[in-house]
Write a structure and sequence with these properties.
The complex is a heterodimer of chains A (142) and B (667). By secondary structure, chain A is an all-alpha fold. Chain A has helices spanning 3-25, 46-63, 87-91, 95-104, 124-138. In chain A, helix 2 (46-63) crosses helix 5 (124-138) and helix 4 (95-104) crosses helix 5 (124-138). With 667 residues, chain B is mainly alpha-helical. In chain B, 42% of the residues lie in helices and 3% in strands. Chain B starts with a helix and ends in an 8-residue tail after the last helix. The chains are: A mainly alpha (142), B mainly alpha (667).
Chain lengths: 142, 667
């Protein structure tokens, strides 16, 4: 074997080590077999979490924990709260329309006056999250 | 020679071209196009001369906000030119910023909340260390502290802090304001008379197996360690004096049970059930799927403890554990015996009969955990048990775990990610550590709390907000917590009835019942005295209710006086007196404009999310009612009532109407 060919061996070895280490670093988080560990990117959508807290505080007592319009208070007011599980209703409304009812109350949109306005309680962002939450989680829309 | 000149010429040409390219690129940075688009829009849409001249004055160039107090200079608006110009047909990066008043861009800049590199004007440098939007509420905590005012706008953050409180992170980690841990888990003295060895070893192995909502974490002990720890704990007896006090004549009392006929026994259990309801045990304990989580679940209690201990505990919890959250209830021996029998009988029905395959017997297993500790005393200290459970002669170590205050200020280069491939960001470090506490090294001590992905996100949000680098002129911590926890006679009553197990005062205590910080500005003294004697349901749908403690007249009088004199809000008290208006107009506003009957009832008509209003003028002070009609949130964090912002003249009318509802002199 000629001398220049011999000198290639250490070069090839170091290249292999370099590639190998790059491959190693490119891997995902090592998970123990019985437990999946999530990075921040993979955690559940926080806008939904946030909306869930707000829904529980302001909405669920009338609209129900799962949005069926059957909260405890639904039986003590004359107009039944909206059932969000009923997809036929949600489909007819745009996000803007839903947001307006939350923002300015039912009366302003020609709906039940028993739905209060939340314009001074919730921010525009929070209302957006709620609309998203109502559609995706309670209305089971894709 | 000529050849050399030619080479030199060629080299100069190449250099010229390269320099030209560099200069051209520097002259046309990415942000220039954004700013031109923005200026074009301004010019086109300028309606008034003022707007026109403003648009003319908009100069293309690097923009910067300098915040000397925060030691920051943010050039983000160089690209994000449209952040304070709503209603434009914007595409990123020109999209306007959502309304975050009262925070102003001039005072806070961008990176105080969003992090990232403020001085950079190129991607990806500028966004390299950006806090992910999903964790952004973390930044609220930098200025607002753990529970400063205004945090109700940050639900992810606040719910994360509640988890931290519940899981007692403070036991091992220092948070801001802490110099040592003041968390006290259940006392372990005399545990051999409380639980049996099987239950204890099972609990040490995985607390969630007995109690899905257990506050204690899994310390990932091996079988040898569990056996040694159990041996050690079961030897910790109550001090002789205390044991005498605690058990007293319980043995004698139990003889009553022997002489009861079957029917009489059934009646006793039935009575126990009534007592269970009357004392509102469900406010703190869960039984068969219903109830609170302040105290341990009572389902399956007969697997854990025995009749004698339970009876002695219910009689005087503080004798066994001075730091318990459970109040002392004044009840008769028969009531107590009945209560205990009721709990044991309920528990028998829900008891699981399966054999536990992981049962750990006394004595060490030779094959396993050769590197583990064999001495229970050492394990108790090394694993940090002592930080939550006090034992005589053993001291908690405030430096047992790294402090959490200032966590967000940590430099990423100084964090040890071990051999993992976790992305090298602080938020990922925290999130992964919470889910798998030993992932960065086998020798780490943090136990496994079994946090769900949702809980992990909420906790990461809180932890990422633990910064100590914000100057005090920006922080709003502690405004709600300026009333000291009472001492003296009032303090004794607080301790006896464990008021702060459920109520909150000065940022301490439970979250089950209303915050008491402004109770004196809220309720009338006479009403309060009566209520403490005979509590009733103000919000009937709640499972958690105020128990009837059978307080003495002196106790109720002292408390009512203390509340009325001390627990006041200056803002509420100093509001000018409202001249009451027209009750007729108030009635119309109540039922047509603000539709209060959605949530409040009068004589049974209306909703019941809020308290019934027929006697509200007996209960609440006028000034308090008036501030609530404007905005309930400053005085009741997490209030469920929307902000109504009712103007003064209408408030006067509504309050006049409310006052006419004082129908009877019922307390």
């Amino acid at each position: 074997m000629t001398a220049w060919k011999t000198s290639l061996i250490p070069a090839a070895v170091s290249l292999a080590i370099l590639l190998g280490s790059l491959y190693g670093f490119a891997g995902e988080v090592q998970n123990t077999p019985d437990k999946k560990v999530l990075t921040v990117r993979e955690l559940p959508d926080f806008r939904i979490t946030k909306a869930e807290v707000l829904y529980g505080r302001y909405c669920a007592f009338c609209h129900g924990d799962t949005g069926g319009g059957d909260g405890l208070n639904a039986y003590s007011i004359p107009v039944k709260p909206r059932n969000f599980n009923d997809r036929t209703v949600l489909i007819q409304r745009t996000d803007e329309e839903l947001a307006k009812v939350i923002l300015s109350g039912g009366d302003s949109q020609g709906l039940s006056k028993y739905m209060p306005a939340f314009d001074k309680t919730l921010s525009i962002d929070q209302i957006e999250y709620l609309v998203d939450f109502i559609r995706k989680k309670l209305g089971n829309e894709e | 020679m000529e050849k050399l000149v030619r080479y030199f010429f060629l080299l100069s040409i190449i250099l010229l071209v390269v320099t030209g390219i560099i200069m051209f690129r520097e002259g046309r940075p990415e942000w220039k196009a954004y700013q031109e688009r923005y200026r074009e829009y301004l010019l086109k849409n300028a309606a008034t001369p003022a707007e026109k001249s403003q648009a003319d004055r908009y100069a293309i160039g690097v923009k910067q906000v300098w915040l000397p107090e925060l030691n920051r200079a943010d050039r983000c608006t160089t690209c994000h030119a449209g952040i304070d110009t709503p209603n434009g047909p914007w595409q990123p990066p020109l999209t306007p910023h959502p309304d975050i008043s009262p925070h102003s861009f001039e005072k806070f800049g961008c990176t105080a909340c969003h992090e990232g590199k403020g001085l950079a004007t190129r991607l990806p440098d500028a966004h390299e260390t950006l806090t992910p939007n999903r964790l952004l509420e973390a930044s609220c905590g930098k200025c607002h502290g753990l529970e400063g005012p205004g945090l109700q706008e940050a639900p992810t953050y606040t719910s994360g802090y509640e988890i931290m409180d519940r899981k007692a992170c403070r036991g091992c980690h220092l948070l801001e304001g802490d110099s040592k841990s003041d968390f006290h888990g259940p006392s372990l003295l005399g545990i051999s008379s409380k639980v049996n060895r099987e239950w204890l070893t099972g609990w040490l192995q995985e607390p969630k197996k007995y109690l899905a909502g257990a506050r204690m974490a899994n310390f990932l002990l091996n079988k040898n360690e569990i056996a040694a720890l159990a041996d050690f704990l079961l030897k910790q007896d109550l001090e002789a004096d205390n044991a005498g006090l605690f058990y007293g004549d319980i043995g004698e009392e139990e003889k009553i049970l022997d002489v009861l006929s079957d029917d009489e026994f059934d009646e006793l259990v039935e009575q126990g059930k009534v007592t269970f309801g009357r004392l509102r045990c469900l406010s703190c304990h869960t039984l068969n799927g219903k109830g609170g989580t302040t105290g341990p679940e009572l389902t399956g209690i007969s697997r854990k403890t025995n009749r004698t201990w339970l009876s002695a505990w219910v009689r005087s919890p503080a004798t066994y554990n001075p730091y318990t959250l459970m109040p002392t209830f004044n009840m008769t021996t028969i009531e107590r015996l009945g209560l205990v029998e009721y709990l044991l009988s309920e528990s028998e029905f829900s008891m699981l009969d399966e054999e536990d395959p992981d049962l750990i017997l006394p004595g060490a297993d030779e094959d396993e955990g050769a590197d583990g500790l064999y001495n229970g005393h050492d394990i108790f200290q090394a694993k940090g048990c002592v930080n939550c459970h006090r034992l005589p002669g053993l001291k908690p170590n405030p430096e047992f775990a790294p402090p959490l205050k200032g966590l967000a200020d940590k430099q990423i280069e100084k964090i040890d990610f071990g051999k993992t491939t976790v992305p090298r960001t602080l938020s990922d470090y925290i999130a992964v550590k919470l889910q798998s506490p030993r992932i960065y090294g086998d020798r780490l001590k943090m136990p496994d709390f079994g946090f769900s992905p949702e809980e992990t996100g909420r906790l990461t949000t809180v932890l990422l907000g633990r910064s100590e680098s914000i100057p005090s002129s920006y922080t709003v911590k502690g405004q709600a917590t300026d009333i000291p926890v009472p001492a003296g006679e009032v303090g004794d009553i607080f301790v006896r009835y464990k008021c702060l197990s459920c109520h909150r005062l000065s940022g301490r205590g439970g979250r089950v019942a209303p915050d008491l910080s402004y109770e004196g500005s809220k309720v009338k003294r006479e009403w309060l005295k009566n209520y403490l004697e005979k509590p009733y349901a103000i919000r009937p749908y709640l499972v958690e209710r105020m128990p009837r403690f059978n307080m003495t007249a002196v106790e109720t009088g002292t408390l009512a006086q203390y509340f009325d004199l001390v627990l006041r809000s200056r803002d509420v008290d100093s509001a000018p007196d409202l001249q009451l208006g027209d009750p007729e107009v108030g009635h119309r506003l109540y039922s047509d404009k603000y539709v209060c009957q959605s949530c409040h009832s009068i004589d049974g008509n209306g909703g019941y999310y809020g308290p019934a209003l027929e006697n509200v003028a007996n209960r609440l002070k006028t000034a308090w009612l008036s501030t609530r009609l404007v905005n309930p949130h400053p005085y009741e964090p997490g209030a469920r009532e929307p902000v109504m912002a009712i103007p003064e003249d209408e408030r006067a009318d509504i309050l006049a109407y409310i006052k006419t509802l004082k129908t009877e002199s019922k307390p």
